[in-house]
């Protein structure tokens, strides 16, 4: 796939399907922002960097530390709501936020593939795998060839 892939959009409400319960909330991108990802037909988990804008409706809401460029793991999958004809991208940022950030602008650079979508028989197995994904994302991003993307002009240097 043609990495890096740049995605941007306003964070949407999803189905609220237990992301937070699993310790893995995912910020959902709007459908039309996923076009750059359409060349990638492989569903699964990807890694890269993401950044959230501090502002919503012109007001600065988020703390400074919530608006830096952060490592992320992204799930790309076919959306059952659209009869599996549309892709959905959901991004878990590896950071503890002080609050939710629905309605905020999110920019992301996808840099590589971690694994395909898998079926889990237990909740514990799923949670374990999410933890592995986070470790793989952080470990992969520690390579200098990837770190330079933190400073890409696609991200804001200062908010
Ligand atoms: P939804 O189905 O609405 O996407 P989730 O359980 O996946 O519900 O929660 C996603 C929301 O959680 C995000 O839109 C964001 O506002 C908030 N959130 C808080 N921390 C994070 C994080 N580290 N990564 C992604 N989203 C987060
Ligand atoms: Mg989500």
Automatic annotation (TrEMBL):
EC number(s) on file: 2.7.1.26
Superkingdom to which the source organism belongs: Eukaryota
Pathway: Cofactor biosynthesis; FMN biosynthesis; FMN from riboflavin (ATP route): step 1/1
GO biological process: FMN biosynthetic process; riboflavin biosynthetic process
Listed GO MF terms: ATP binding; riboflavin kinase activity
Any one GO CC term of the record: mitochondrion
Residues covered by the Riboflavin kinase domain: 1-142
Class of the enzyme per the UniProt entry, highest EC level: transferase
Key words, A-Z: ATP-binding, Flavoprotein, FMN, Kinase, Nucleotide-binding, Transferase
Role this protein plays: Catalyzes the phosphorylation of riboflavin (vitamin B2) to form flavin mononucleotide (FMN) coenzyme.
Family: Belongs to the flavokinase family.
Protein name: Riboflavin kinase
Organism expressing this protein natively: Wolfiporia cocos (strain MD-104)
């Amino acid at each position: 796939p043609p990495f890096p892939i740049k995605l941007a959009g306003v964070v949407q409400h999803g189905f609220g399907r237990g992301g937070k319960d699993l310790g893995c909330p995912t910020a959902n991108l709007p459908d039309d922002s996923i076009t750059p990802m359409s060349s990638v037909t492989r569903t699964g988990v990807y890694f890269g960097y993401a950044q959230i804008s501090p502002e919503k409706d012109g007001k600065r809401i988020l703390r400074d530390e919530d608006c830096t460029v952060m490592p992320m793991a992204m799930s790309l999958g076919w959306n059952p709501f659209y009869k599996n004809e549309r892709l959905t991208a959901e991004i878990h940022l590896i950071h503890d936020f002080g609050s939710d950030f629905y309605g905020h602008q999110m920019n992301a650079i996808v840099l590589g593939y971690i694994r395909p979508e898998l079926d889990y028989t237990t909740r514990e197995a799923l949670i374990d795998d999410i933890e592995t994904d986070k470790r793989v994302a952080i470990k992969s991003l520690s390579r200098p060839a990837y770190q330079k993307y933190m400073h890409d002009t696609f991200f804001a240097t200062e908010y």
